[in-house]
Amino acid sequence: MEASQVAFLSAIGNHFLVGISRAMILFVVSAGLSFILGVLRVPNLAHGSLYMIGAFVAHGLTTFFGGGSIGFWFALLLSPLVVALISLVAERALFCHLYEREHLMLLLFTFALMLILGDLVKIFWGADYRSVTAPKLLQGSVTVFSSPIPKYNLFLLGMGPVIAVALYLFSNKTRIGKIARAAAADREMVSAIGINVSWVFAFAFILGCSLAGLGGALVSPTVSVTLGMDHDIIIETFLIVTIGGLGNMWGAMVGSLIFGLTQSFGVLFLPQFAIVFPYIAVVIVLIWKPRGMLKAVW
Amino acid sequence: MLRVENAQKDFDGFKAVNGASLSVEKGEIVAVIGPNGAGKTTLFNLITGQLKPNGGTITFLGEDITSMPSHRICKKGIARSFQIANIFHRLSVFRNVQVSVLSQKNRNLNLFLSSDSFFVKETQSILKNAGLADKHQEIAGSLSHGDRRLLEIAIALGNEPRLLILDEPTAGMSPEETATTISLIKRLAETRGLTILFCEHDMDVVFGVSHRIMVMEQGRTLVQGKPDEVKNNLEVQRAYLGTE
Amino acid sequence: MRAIDFQKGRTPIFNSILLAFLILAPAVLPAFYIYIFSVIFVTAILAMSLNLVVGHGGLYQFHHGVFYGIGAYTLALILTKTDLPPWVGFIAGPVCAALAGWLIGLFCVRLSRLYFGMLQISLGSLIWAVTFRWYALTGGDDGIHGIELPGILSGITRSYYVILIVLSVCLIALYRIYKSPFGITLRAIRDNPERCAAVGINVRRHQLLAIVIATFFAGVAGVFFVVVERSVFPDLMFWVLSLEIMIMCLLGGWFTFSGPILGAAIMVSLRTFAGVYTEYWTLILGVILILLIFFLPEGVMGFIALKLKRRELLLEAKKDI
Asked: What number is the ipTM of this complex?
């Protein structure tokens, strides 16, 4: 093979891996969105803001621990918890009173939450760009396909499936997970057997939101943490969930892979229009299968 | 006029309608009875196109209407009321009926003329017929249960149907309201020569108005015949049919 | 709903006074206010057009801003990149918006409500993404600025009057549609699509026509946005703007005819004056939205209508129908 061909193939391999590792972050966030959609049947527009908060909290914690490795691992653990706490407050104080209302109202509520959280982040953290350093273990890169891949991306490649399996086990093997799944499919039935649907909803909302927080913490070493992160991710995860099939976790995985890979290869082939490629993929999928690749839960 | 042959409908393996057959001739009042879950409402939904059958054929006036979308079936001359009052709850009673009159006359795509100049008389006379004339200004959602059911029928009448299908027209009504509804049904059949197909739990209503009765059980047709025949048959099968 | 009909009660008097004030406004008010009024007029057309499909049509039109943007960009491109006479742009803007509405609607109306909304966001975001990146044509994220307008629209007072006339024409047209058999059928579909199909209405065709009409008027609003601002930028097509328009409809009252005008007026004024005092406008917007959801779900106009219902019902009883 000629050198140029080798370079091309290694570039493809490289973008493939980068695309998948990006897809893993999208998956974590969109799985949360999808979970909420499945159970509450509401697209949570505040999801992106919670993701952003997750990233900011991760930055705060790593700086608090002096930028060392420990800080980052703590952040990975605590960011989802902080976000869960925020969503718990929002849910119990306000959101839970709306479950009987029209759907559009629920959607608009999450929009209001998004607007408020976005400005609160601005008030607390300001509009600066921040960066989070990955822990020592994950710094640097290894050579795959004769081109360097950051170790952190490989870490993400590992984390994605782990979280997917954990979520799968959770929703299929635990009682509360099963109840949530049942509530997604048929809420009347669940309330008929004497389960407080309101708490199931609260639980689903908080779990979904904390996944957004986790996604934010995971992404923080790879991007600059700043305002506006919320707008980009929310529309991306929205599309992912739509093409995957509403409420279907594996659909979120499929959608994320489509999205991550088209984006990554878009950068390779036509950088200026890189952001357009995933949208085109989405449009093709939706015209071909308007209800998404996999079966929606309801 | 209407002929249903061997209609089938599966819901995820549950056979809600499993080989029901039915025929209705012009000018008849036909009742469909059977225990809860016998598939009466599903059968009606198949006829009027809310659901698509998995098998069987439905013909109306010699034309195959199986699996036609419901708005086209309606244009063929079949109108229906629903079991749960299915009205336009934010519109006034008058508008509720006017909508179906407009649809019947193919005027509902008219964009620039005021609705107040369309079919006011026709709508008013239907409302008068249904005994809702003095309530025409009220918002439909604020009507009493009985009035909503009457409005249901009035909306269906706006289509000037040849065949009117009523799904439990007197369910949840007080005895007086039931009496009003029955006399309305009878009057419609007589004065307008309307063919009516309905299902009902109240046996007094069924035997009081219908010319023929079809008994359904577990999705299939059990018996079809004159009220007397069915009654005799019923006596025999009372134990089998339970409360019906 | 019926309580705020134009021809009833005191509304004709109120409307005449309002119109007289708006006609005289440029003579007495500073230019800044005239500019704000123009913005309100344009936004009002936009909000009214959205409400036709959301409030009266019950459709989840989540990405209406795209059609506004298409109208604006079409005019901007024709004025800056071609030698065509300007009036072509003023016609092409709404027509292109309606065409896009038809095309996107064609895919969306097949789907149930939430999927409808999500698909529309997807398709709309595609248009946004292309606009955002196509520097050669659209100027990318910078947009196009300093657009030259034909003489009749130069000067803030002239454009103010033109937009006032356009607003009036749009209002009359939308009001006629609202009262027409089509409008009534549309509201019936909102209340109960299944029942509508059962009375012989082709629900999807109706919804599609409603979308085409609404996107046409969104295009009109977009065209006159260019007249007011003399610039276009991709934010016009960003989904956040689409949801803001929805808030205007909610604020004014979904189920009323004139609510969205009020909603647009309140929102534009608030944004303008809040902007003077604070940089946290979205925080305020979020709080307003939550208050609306909890305390005023029928909007300001809807609330007034409910309060006046008694009186209006008495009035209606005297009428013939």
From this structure: 0.88
